[in-house]
Write a structure and sequence with these properties.
Chain lengths: 313, 313
């Protein structure tokens, strides 16, 4: 059986048909997340119908629909409890009612990073691990944790997923969550344009010619030995490493899973992150291993499929 | 039955006879922790014998000995796995063999903050709570967490207890643990003298006349409206609040328990900490409650007694 997985990201909505840990078909539509969730649903529905048609399938051939968002989720009620800076109208929306009305299928709803962790442990780069943290560099920075085979959820579903909102600099920037100096406010994709534009030599940098400054543009500028890009990347690496150390100190994992679009540049970034974390983390038992999602675009889709299967057993 | 509890702190060793959540007798001897554990054991033994004599008890009247240290503990082996900047020779020391040889009693060994959390939940200010974090301001800053009634331990016993070593400023000071910018390196009792002496107006402050600068001296100077003390306290409050927010974001508790010597000034500090945390923490379900240990000196002793009792059931 096939599952439908929908990853409502900050920049794109990724939709996949997943079969036993393998993404059989996938499509991506823009998120326009600042305009809300509900205005995007008709395009999501069209995209799913098209994927099914292209694959010669009907909704009734599917086990269920897995839905991930970058917010705090109530998995039992299948609703979003809180989300920051995007899809504001998703709070309280009944995904179950929607899935049932449009596709006659049950829905499973989960935080995106937690889905990605399950995807990588169930089917991906961290298969079979029991003590792991995941950090997914998307528009924001999502995290999730597993201790002794159990996903860390906490009393109100918040534990493990707010690693991007641990304070990494008390004198830092205001975050969209309301807090100050969150790792996400200091080093995420959404925070990057402001970080770059505030650099005193910004106008001397090739980055000043970019229309949209993103991780990719910084890494490209780096190849051209752009001093501003070098300094910005140094600062980002400082925050990413501190953020990973914080997850290690908080959850005591054996493996750190890295995912999200940024990991397309893992060849450049990973060795530097690993060196810094190994040098600074307090892990007297040994060294945490690092794995990168085999396909950083599909971690969430795989995890949703895992959850849909689990909901049917 | 009475238990013997020993809290090997960074500044003092606190020893108590505890009976059903009540410290019946207590004594304090200096730690000299930088000189190691083993050189202090004969004084600890003498102090315990004296406490027992004063209480009209013999070792055989006791259930067991609970021992807490500010390090990473293997509770099954009853040994210290790692400890930073104090009691260096405690690593690998067999507390069980010692307790058995000297007192013919079994030992229980636990991290000090985890013991304090159990003490406050079992017998103290947070009785009956199931989702809590504790932060104990001693010489260093210890933390512990409980999720859904289970103490957070992690794969190697490190989870929950390294909250003082979450990075709160990536551009901060080197910590004794080897990491940079830990909350403990920025705002603990041991870090304080350096923080104060680095202040540009230090020599104009009444603090420059103090022989040993500690939390108490900053709070005293504050009462005399000392500008340096005001600024230092503002900075400390920033870090303490961020550290508590990080624990809330990491473990999703309903209650934050504050303990340790600093809480003798809870009347001055607590309202400011609570206001900052409530303003900045992302807790859409409601507001975390704060409780202060009824007797901040005895949280650890009570928790050790709880663990000794548990070990005998």
């Amino acid at each position: 059986m096939v599952d439908i997985s929908i990853d409502f990201g900050g920049t794109n909505i990724k939709i996949g048909l997943v079969h036993f840990g393998c993404v059989k078909a996938k499509t991506i539509i823009p998120a326009f997340a600042d305009k809300g969730l509900i205005p995007r649903l008709s395009d999501v529905e069209k995209a799913i119908h098209q994927l099914l048609i292209d694959s010669g399938l009907m909704p009734c051939d599917c086990t269920g629909i897995g839905i991930a968002l970058p917010g705090i989720i109530d998995p039992a009620a299948k609703t979003v409890l809180s989300i920051n800076g995007k899809y504001a109208d998703a709070v309280g929306f009944s995904f179950q009612e929607w899935a049932n009305r449009i596709f006659s299928l049950d829905a499973v709803v989960e935080n995106d990073a937690r889905s990605a962790l399950l995807g990588e442990i169930g089917y991906g780069a961290a298969r079979g691990e029991s003590n792991a943290v995941l950090i997914i560099f998307g528009t924001g920075i999502g995290t999730a944790a597993m201790i002794n085979g159990q996903i860390v959820r906490g009393r109100h579903g918040q534990a493990g997923i707010l690693g991007g909102h641990l304070v990494a600099n008390v004198h830092g920037n205001r975050c969209t969550c309301g807090n100050v100096g969150c790792m996400e406010a200091q080093s995420s994709h959404w925070a990057l344009p402001q970080l770059v534009k505030r650099h005193p030599q910004f106008l001397d940098s090739s980055l000043s010619n970019e229309i949209g400054i993103d991780y990719r543009s910084v890494i490209e500028a780096l190849k051209a030995v752009d001093q501003v890009a070098l300094e910005i990347l140094e600062e980002l690496l400082l925050y990413w490493s501190a953020g990973i150390i914080n997850l290690i100190h908080a959850y005591d994992p054996e493996v750190v899973i890295l995912s999200g679009g940024l990991m397309k540049s893992a060849d450049v970034l990973l060795p530097q992150i690993v060196d810094r974390v190994h040098a600074l983390a307090w892990t007297p038992w040994g060294k945490v291993r690092f794995v990168v999602a085999e396909d950083p675009d599909t971690s969430v889709l795989l995890g949703l499929s895992y959850l849909v299967q689990l909901s049917k057993t």
